[in-house]
Amino acid sequence: MNARLMVAFLLVGSRAGAQVIANPSAAVAAMGGTGTAAARGLDAPAWNPAGLGLPGTSAFSISLLLNANGAGGSGPIGMSDFAKKYPGDTVPDAVRRTWLDRVRSGGGQTISGAADFSLLALNIGPVGFSYSATVRGAGRIPTDAAELLLFGNFGYADSLRAFNLAGARFDAAAFSTAALSYGVPLNVRIGSWEDQHFAIGVTAKYMMGHGLIVAADAGSAIATAPVDVDVRIRTVSSDTGSSNGGSGGNDRTAILGSGIGVDLGVAWEGGPFKVGIALRDIVNSFKWTSGDLYTQTTALRYTSGVRTQDTGPWKKVSALGAAARDSVERLVNPLVVDPSLAIGMTWDVGGRLTLAGEFQQRTGGGFATSPPSRFGVGAQWKGIPFLPLRVGYSQTPDANFVTGGIGFDFAFVRLDFAGGVNTRTGGDGTAAVALTFGRH
After folding, report:
1. Which of 67, 69, 71 is CA-nearest to residue 118?
2. What is the pLDDT of residues 119-169, one digit of tens each?
3. Structural domains in the chain?
4. Which residues contact 249 (CB under 8 A, 6 or more apart)?
5. The whole model's pTM is what?
6. pLDDT, position 2
7. Residue 349 phi/psi, 5° resolution?
8. DSSP conformation class of 53
9. pLDDT per residue over 73-100, tens digit each?
10. With 0-12 CB in 10 A as exposed, 13-18 as middle and 19+ as buried, what is 167?
C-alpha cells in the first residue's frame, strides 16, 4: 500500500522558493528550495508536474491543514542595519552616509514581503491538485528619496539641494491559484542504466486577484530657492476602506483580476541521478481588471512656511475619463506574471547521501511571484535511516539563505523540520514543520 495521508503546517517557509503555487514541503525548504528534480506526489504541482509520472508518487496523498510560507526583507540597507542599537537611539552621521553609498551603488532601496498559503494539495496517482493563496508586497525608494529620508533636504553634502522623487512606488496584492497537474511516463532511455524512468507533465492553473494597492509618485519635486516641497501621490486600490466604496455604494468585486497559466515539466531518473526541467507560467494571461479599482490623488505642499494638504475623493476607475484611465492602466499593467525556467538535479551518493542543485531564472519585470533569479544547493544525509539531516543554501539578487532541517521518518509517520537565516542581512529568518501520516 503506497497511499499516504499528509497533515502539515509550515510555520514560515523560505522566501527563495516563493512562486505562484505555494511549496507544501518542509524537506524541500530545508534543502535550499531544490524541488524541481525530486518533487513527487502532492509536492509536484508546485515544482515540476512531471514528477507525478515517476516512481515515488503515491497512489493517494493529501495535505489537510493550512501550510504557510512567509518572509520579508530589504536591501541594500538590510533589516539587521535597522535593528542595531546606536547611542542615544540616533543613527550616527557616518553610518547614514555608508547606508546612502550602498543605496546609490544599488540604484535605490527596495523592500519586499511575501506570504504563501497552501490551502489544499493532493494527488491521486499521476493527477495532482492544489489550491493556494499568495500575498505579495514590494516597494522601491529611489536614491533621491533615500537621501531625503536619511539627511533631510540638506542632503548628503550638508547643503540645500533639489530632489526628484520619480520612481518611488509601493505595490501589494493578494491572489489565489487553483492548479491541476498531470504527469505521464514515457519510454525514453538516456544512458545505459537499467533502472531509469522518464516523464513529462503539465499544470493548468487559474489565478484570481482579490486585492491590490499601488501607491506611486505622481510628479513630486522639492526645490531650494525658495524652499518648496511639493509631494504628489497617486493611489490605486481595490478597497477604499469605506463601506460605501467611495462611489456611493458598496459594489466591491470579489475577483478583481483573473487569468489562466500553464506550466510544463520534464523529469528523468536513472541510476543515482534525478533531473528535472520546469517551464513555469510559459503562458499566463493574468491581468487586473482596472475598471473595478478605485483611485485617489493626494498633494502635500510646504512653501513660504505654509503647509497645505489636498486629498481628493476616491473615484472608481471605470467612471474616469480616457486620459485618467490610461494613467491607472500604466500603473497596474506591469503587475503581471512572467515566465520562469527551473533546472534541477539530484545525485544519490552511496545510498545515504543525496546532493541537490537547482537554478531558476524569471523573465521580464512583472509582479514578483518569484525572485528574478535563484540558485540553490542542498544535501540530505541518512546516516540513521529514520533520521534524515538536511542542509541547504540559496542565493537571489537580494538574499543569501542558509537553511537546514531534520526529519523523523518511520513506517507510518514522518515529521520534518526546517529553518534558515538570510546571511546577507542577518534579519530575515525562516522556519517550517510538516507532519505526514501513512505509509510512504
Report:
1. 67
2. 888 999 999 999 999 888 889 999 999 999 998 887 787 778 889 899 999
3. 4-438 (2.40.160)
4. none
5. 0.84
6. 45
7. -95, 100
8. G
9. 777 887 778 777 888 778 898 999 999 9
10. middle
